[in-house]
Design goal:
Blueprint lengths: L2 E3 L16 E6 L2 E6 L4 H7 L25 E2 L18 E3 L3 H16 L15 H9 L25 E3 L9 H10 L4 E4 L6 E4 L15 H5 L5 E3 H6 L4 E6 L8 E7 L2 E7 L12 H5 L14 E2 L8 E2 L2 H19 L4 E5 L5 H15 L4 E3 L6 H10 L17 E5 L3 H4 L1 H12 L3 E5 L8 E2 L2 E2 L2 E3 L6 H14 L5 H7 L2 H12 L5 H8 L3 H13 L3 E5 L1 H4 L4 H14 L9 E4 L6 H6 L6 E2 L3 E2 L3 H11 L11 H10 L4 E5 L3 H4 L3 H9 L3 E6 L11 E4 L8 E4 L4 E5 L11 H11 L9 H11 L8 H7 L2 E2 L43 E6 L24 E4 L1 H6 L7 E5 L4 E8 L7 E5 L7 H4 L16 E7 L5 H18 L13
Helix pairs in contact: 8-25, 9-25, 9-26, 10-19, 13-16, 13-17, 13-19, 16-17, 22-24
The structure holds iron/sulfur cluster (3 copies) and FE2/S2 (inorganic) cluster (FES).
The site of one iron/sulfur cluster has 13 residues, from α7 and α12.
Length: 958
């Protein structure tokens, strides 16, 4: 069902309307009932009658400009446009009459007289609505000739790396302008000029690349001609089949149709039926997939004895056997617990399941952890303590029912762009917005959106701020007493109420700590508590702190106290960073938890796994990633299997991580590229991209979606096959022939996945866990009748200042984040034309702090913390407040994590990336670490370039 011959999705002309009242009308003799507010065009389409159209499309509100969709309606004068005419009770409509035919032909004649007649060589040939409509209306001649103001000599705009704009093909239907406004929310396009002169303009008649355009592709998708066209289609022609799959970038989990020609991807088209994205996309998923065929991909397995040796290409069998024998050697010499593994939040659920199983069953230890350790582990802990389940409570669709939104420590426009577009749409409809962030993120003031409150909190004081908001809610009688009485533990609530009501938690008392004016805190708290459906969306700006878990609990407290949980439009919503962070946590990647968040010390749960897997499991939690590093430096941890993660670049205190890796004897890295971690590896197992394998990802809504193989793995094996081979070589048999069988095992052993099958996902498009006998079709909204833990539990969230405070030596606070065009460590996006938007990490510094240091825009500045020093280029901006500097971490050479420290969340060890005390000074040369990094990287790249090919042994004698 999901591999199809290419055909355009059926377009019903105008968006669906929701109304309890139905109206009944007759169209071409057929009676049809539709919700009130539905257009005549859509009513006809739902009855199977296609009215010709050009400017209408069902993802956008009708505009009524092309006049091709005229109809006749009994009792009405003239010929109204069916796209802008609402259906009414008793209406009798005719869509095909001789007069309508004549009128439509006339409209088409006008269009064609102004259009280049180069259909045969046009890239949209076969996928052009203008061409289709010419056929539909029976256009036979053009009375006005073909010499209209045809714009044939107007220059094309080729500035965007992914699509081009050819003004000669434009029919001025306005669909692109509306897509940019309604779907994307960027408002980058206008129609400039009048009559025949009118054409689409980006920004102030700038090039697309220089304009506000964020390259989401919505306008390209909406364009009915080849005016806005993907460059890959121009180059390769139309695709011939498609496969539905899921984006491998962020936690939104957008569905895409990979449109293919043989084994080549022609373009990725956002899937109209995708339940996370509803047909929208961002620049990463839509366009930045070129890394999958990048020349730097390592496609052959490689081994070496020491990291100073050249690499040796070997067969898969040799590499796997070598890794297995090294792991067994280390265990024999240093003990069972001397090795471990790291699962990937970029790999599929099935692959992650296998890696944790390999560690627990084949290695015989619980030394398994995941990169969620460094991002959302506090979410898991905090939500489990309060609500009883380590996951967000809503669907993304739910935001369309919200009245007040708190966005805290998240920048959805960059990190979760498709969700941001949906949120902006709701905000334009009138929902209110509270932003809690040290930095002025885009949402604070973007086209047609202005936050009611921007609480510009000082980094590290989130818990204090939320206690102050809770104080207002508790002391101004804004608590939803009925909800709390019915749904929450009374004792814990009373203790919490007493705690937050104390004067020391008042906004006035906390103002000194948070830097946020008390009146603004009071206003925001009142708005959230009384403004209708209140929802909270948060990100790593909440979790990556010494009190990350405490702040997550404070968020849950606020939602419970105001009754904002358990229905549409409300809830607690962690915005997950990577595509499968939720899944990697669900799949038992943490050292203390078996899949489904069940503690490893639980004898009953362990017994189920032992019976199924045929092994004895260790009852004690294993090492977390930071503990692995410490143990490596202490000499007791010697071997690591690291799948799809780049811990050297992504983890804090780079020099500490690198020293730990250098102290190990066997590091096995499975990845697409020789990343920073692989430079310390002894075995390199080539990874497969999301286009090359089957499986599932679970997004931030707990939505499990299928990843489908669209091309054969370029390295010869999908990632899950590699783990299976390694396990077999270690003597623990795994016999899966397809990821479907792994999912069957997941369902068998994980109560929340009990009802999940590939067939169900295929049938439903996706499914949200829990999916089991109690909820066979999944659970879009959680905690409806009661909390997963029974009664909700309020937790005391006392503010404890971080040790990482500004001092005379380090007077500024560094906080980090990401930007739209790059993704995480950048391994994928740096290898795409996305570098056109962002080719280096910059340090944002407030004008006042810059002036104090004699720094101007573009200067090289040294950023110095107690962990290390790096050098970046400065950008002077008041997006950050005085005393705060900000950077991204997408480029290894910038070494943002050389500066971050290993201080971490008290409960989960999630690093405190968001607060590092630093000093910034003007400098003229790279830092010592950067010089060392360049030297080491040059050597490693040389060792890769000069690798011995298969059959040329370089390992003998060492
Ligand atoms: S690509 Fe997206 S942001 Fe850019 S003009 Fe088109 S719709 Fe607007
Ligand atoms: S660029 Fe395409 S969508 Fe935009 S007005 Fe022209 S034809 Fe219509
Ligand atoms: S929003 Fe996230 S999941 Fe969707 S296309 Fe962009 S990167 Fe991919
Ligand atoms: S489709 Fe209705 S006016 Fe263009």
């Amino acid at each position: 069902m999901l591999e199809t011959v290419i055909k355009r999705d059926r377009d019903l002309g105008t968006p669906a309307r929701v109304s309890e009242r139905l109206v009944t009308l007759t169209i071409d003799g057929q009676e049809i009932s539709v919700p009130e507010g539905t257009s005549v065009m859509r009513a006809a389409a739902e009855a199977g009658i296609n009215i010709p159209k050009l400017c209408a499309t069902d993802s956008l509100e009708a505009f009524g400009s092309c006049r091709l969709c005229l109809v006749q309606i009994d009792g009405r004068r003239g010929y109204p446009a069916s796209c802008t005419t609402p259906a009414e009770d008793g209406m009798v409509v005719y869509t095909e009459t001789p007069k309508l035919h004549e009128l439509r032909r006339g409209v088409m004649e006008l269009y064609i007289s102004d259009h280049p007649l180069d259909c045969l060589t046009c890239p949209a040939n076969g996928d052009c609505e203008l061409q289709d409509m010419a056929g539909v209306v029976g256009l036979r001649n053009v009375r006005y000739g073909y010499d209209g103001a045809n714009h044939l000599n107007d220059a094309k705009d080729e500035s965007n790396p992914y699509f081009s704009y050819d003004p000669s093909k434009c029919i001025v239907c306005n669909r692109c302008v509306r897509a940019c406004e309604e779907t994307q929310g960027t408002f980058a396009l206008t129609i400039s000029g009048k009559g025949f002169e009118s054409r689409v303009a980006a920004g102030q008649s700038e090039s697309f690349l220089d304009s506000e355009c964020v390259s989401c592709g919505a306008c390209v998708q909406a364009c009915p001609t080849s005016t806005l066209q993907e460059k890959t289609v121009i180059m390769m022609g139309q695709a011939e089949h498609s496969v539905v799959t899921t984006c491998a970038y962020c936690g939104v989990g957008c569905g895409f149709k990979a449109e293919m020609k043989g084994q080549e991807v022609v373009r990725m088209v956002p899937w109209k039926d995708g339940q996370a994205n509803r047909g929208h996309s961002c620049v990463k998923g839509r366009f930045a997939w070129g890394y999958t065929t990048h020349k730097e991909r390592v496609l052959k397995p490689m081994i070496r004895k020491h990291i100073t040796d050249p690499w040796q290409e070997v067969s898969w069998d040799e590499a796997i056997n070598y890794a297995a024998s090294e792991f067994r050697r280390l265990q024999a010499k240093y003990g069972r617990d001397s090795i471990g593994g790291i699962t990937s939040s970029r790999c599929t659920n099935e692959e992650t399941w296998l890696v944790q199983k390999l560690v627990r069953a084949a290695f015989g230890t619980n030394n398994v952890d995941t990169c969620a350790r460094v991002c959302h582990s506090p979410t898991g802990y905090g939500l489990k303590q309060t609500l009883g389940e380590s996951a967000g409570t809503q669907t993304f669709d739910s935001v369309m029912h919200t009245d007040v939104v708190i966005v805290m420590g998240a920048n959805p426009s960059s990190g979760h762009p498709v969700f941001a577009s949906r949120l902006k749409r709701r905000l334009r409809q009138g929902a209110r917005l509270i932003v809690i962030d040290p930095r002025r993120i885009e949402l604070v003031n973007s086209p047609h959106i202005k936050a009611d409150y921007h609480l510009q909190v000082r980094p590290g004081t989130n818990t204090a701020l939320l206690s102050a908001m809770a104080h207002v809610i508790a002391t101004e009688n804004l608590i939803n007493e009925a909800f709390v009485a019915e749904r929450c533990e009374a004792k814990a609530f009373n203790e919490w109420r007493e705690f937050v009501s104390r004067p020391e938690n008042s906004p006035e008392a906390m103002e000194e700590v948070t830097g946020v004016p008390a009146e603004a805190v009071r206003g925001a708290a009142r708005l959230y508590a009384t403004g209708g459906n209140g929802s909270i969306y948060y990100g790593l700006g909440v979790t990556e702190h010494s009190q990350g878990s405490t702040t997550v609990m404070a968020i849950a407290n606020l939602a419970m106290a105001t009754g904002n949980i358990g229905r549409e439009g409300v809830g607690v919503n962690p915005l997950r960073g990577q595509n499968n962070v939720q899944g990697s946590c669900d799949m038992g990647s943490f050292p203390h938890e078996l899949p489904g968040y069940r503690h490893i010390s639980d004898n009953t749960v362990r017994a189920q796994f032992e019976a199924d897997w045929g092994v004895t499991l260790q009852p004690e939690p294993g090492l977390r990633i930071p503990n692995m590093f410490e143990a490596a430096l202490a000499g007791s941890f010697k071997g690591l299997y690291c799948q799809g993660e780049d811990i050297v670049q992504s983890d804090p205190n780079t020099q500490h991580v690198a020293a730990a890796l250098a102290a190990m004897e066997c590091i096995v890295v499975q990845d697409l590229f020789l990343n920073e971690t692989a430079k310390y590896a002894h075995v390199f197992l080539p990874g497969s991209s999301f286009l090359e394998k089957d499986g599932t990802f679970t997004n931030a809504e707990r939505r499990i979606s299928r990843v489908r193989k669209v091309t054969e793995p370029r390295n010869g094996k999908a990632d899950w096959e590699v783990t299976v081979a390694l396990s077999n070589a270690l003597g623990y048999p795994m016999n899966y022939t397809h990821p479907r069988e792994i999912m069957e095992e997941i369902a068998r052993l994980t109560p929340t996945f009990q009802g999940v099958t590939y067939e169900k996902i295929d049938r439903m498009g996706s499914v949200q866990w829990p999916c089991n006998d109690a909820a066979p079709e999944g659970t879009p909204i959680m905690h409806i009748e009661e909390f997963v833990r029974g009664k909700g539990r309020f937790m005391i969230t006392k503010y404890v200042p971080t040790d990482e405070r500004s001092t005379r030596k380090f007077p500024l606070l560094l906080t980090t984040g990401r930007i739209l065009s790059q993704y995480n460590v950048g391994a994928q996006t740096r290898r795409t034309p996305n570098v056109a938007w962002h080719s280096e990490d910059l340090l944002e510094i407030h004008p006042q702090d810059a002036e104090d240091r004699g720094v101007v825009d573009g200067d090289w500045v040294g950023v110095h913390s107690r962990a290390g020093q790096t050098v970046l280029r400065a950008t002077v901006t008041d997006r950050v407040q005085p005393g705060v500097v900000y950077t991204t971490f997408h480029f290894p050479e910038s070494g943002a994590n050389v500066v971050t420290t290993d201080s971490s969340d008290w409960a989960t060890n999630c690093p405190e990336y968001k607060v590092t005390a630093v000093q910034v000074t003007r400098v003229s040369q790279p830092s010592e670490w950067q010089r060392e990094w360049s030297r080491f990287s040059d050597i490693q790249e040389k060792l890769l370039r000069e690798r011995a090919r298969e059959n040329e042994s370089v390992l003998s004698g060492k």
